[in-house]
Prior knowledge:
Layout (H helix, E strand, L loop, with lengths): L2 H12 L6 H12 L3 H8 L3 H8 L7 H11 L3 H15 L14
Amino acid sequence: MTTRIAARAWLERQNNGPLTLGQLLLSIREGEGASQVDFAARLGLSRSHLCDLEKDRKPISPERAVRLAAILGYSERQFVRLAINAQLARAKLPYVVTRDPAAA
Length: 104
């Protein structure tokens, strides 16, 4: 099991369900020991907007997910997948986007 898969599985156990982009942002921020103010400034967001994203109160577009991933140095695919899954859940559609291991 790769480190990323193990980390995601651990986060999902901690959150009692599938990982959301908001939870991932919160985990990254806390892992770096950054305050919401500092992390929001790094991302070009207000502190209150970051708080809404971390608590999954506001959706993140796939385009914004790509920008956030680039700023943080994380996988754009992972961020986009989580953003799209949040949109599907909000629309109450019974679909989940997963990564195809064969895709490069």
